[in-house]
Amino acid sequence: MSFSSGHRYWLPHLSEEENRRLFGRWASPYNHGHNYVLEMTVSGAISPQTGMVINIKELDALLRRRIVDRFDQKSLNDEVDEFAELPPTAENISLVIWRQMLDLPQGTRLESIQLFENERLFVQVSRNNGGYDMTLTRCYEFSASHRLHCPQLSDAENAALFGKCNNPTGHGHNYELEVSVRVSPDPVTGMGVDIGVVDEIVNREVVDRYDHHNLNDDIEEFHGLNPTTEVLTRTIWRRLNGKLPVPLQKVVVKETARNYFEYSGEDE
Ligand SMILES: [Zn+2]
Ligand SMILES: [Zn+2]
Predict the structure, then answer these.
(1) CATH number of the 1-119 domain
(2) Percentage of the chain exceeding pLDDT 70
(3) Distance of alpha carbon 55 from alpha carbon 41, whole angstroms
(4) Residue of 79, 139, 165, 173 with catalytic role
(5) 139 carries an active-site annotation
(6) pLDDT band at 268 (very low <50, low <70, confident <90, very high)
(7) Quick one: average pLDDT of 229-248?
(8) Which listed residue (111, 212, 230, 262) is catalytic?
(9) Ligand 1 centre from 32 Cα, in Å?
(10) Which of 138, 178, 210, 242 gets the most CB atoms within 10 Å of its CB?
(11) So what's the pLDDT on residue 28?
């Protein structure tokens, strides 16, 4: 489902100076807007009668009544009660939606919601031990070339194993990178993390280093490694883990439209 809403980061009971100090570059007494996209996952048993977990129409109607009709084409700060005092960050909007949708028809359970503020930023709230976890994901791109090749194997074995990917002069990809961090919204600002700081670190550690480079030859951390996307994903995790202002949850690298890899530090 989607809805278009306006919002601003500006608390009415604070002075201009305090608002600018709290929200930094995001502070403004004027609205801007987003086309939010909301995904929701529920679980339950398949009904022997209908063959469904829940009737999608019923779920759509609930989402419409509780969220979309109340948020769409509205200024969240001014027209939606929950945000009269609560800054409508993607984190807080997700939490409000999570709480509104917890009560579902008998036998179905809310598992997670994903709220995209734009194509490059989304917040996920997912069930965990009776409570919930929240992650914020930021999306990046870089273009890099590589060659898949194991020096321990013969040229014929490499060619058989990697096919076209073993081409001696390499080939390239437009990689898409998703970095997910664990957040909880600040009680005052509603922000889980300063996204500007995350961008700065990911760009410095990964995107600016790899973009328009040859991974095998130009990038120190791949010397002696076969730069498959599995290795790339784990390498990015290691470069970012511990350097961000909040805990790293997951790194996803999409090599092509047909395959992607994710890593959460399993063998660290
Ligand atoms: Zn915004
Ligand atoms: Zn490749």
Answers:
(1) 3.30.479.10
(2) 100
(3) 13
(4) 165
(5) no
(6) confident
(7) 97
(8) 212
(9) 6
(10) 210
(11) 96
Q: Which tokens sit at 163? A: 């096919």
User: Residue 185: its pLDDT value, please?
Assistant: 96
DSSP letter string, 52-82: -SS-HHHHHHHHIIIIIHHHTTEEHHHH-GG
Active site residue 13: no
Q: In terms of Cα–Cα distance, which of 84, 76, 39 is closest to 59?
A: 39
Q: Return the pLDDT at 266.
A: 86
Q: Where are any strands of DSSP class E within 129-258?
A: 131-146, 171-182, 213-214, 248-256
- The most distant pair of C-alpha atoms in the chain lies apart, rounded to whole Å, by 72
CATH 3.30.479.10-classified regions of the chain: 1-119, 129-268
- Identity (one letter) of the amino acid at 120? R
84 token code pair: 């009269």
**Cβ count near 139 (within 10 Å):** 16
The encoded tokens of residue 225 equal 């490694």
User: May I ask the CATH architecture of the domain 129-268?
Assistant: 2-Layer Sandwich (3.30)
Tokens of 120: 């490059």
pLDDT digits (tens, 9 = 90+) for 190-224: 999 999 999 999 999 999 999 999 999 999 999 99
Q: Is 165 a catalytic residue?
A: yes
Round to whole Å and give the CA distance between 224 and 56.
51
Distance CA 67, CA 65 (A): 6
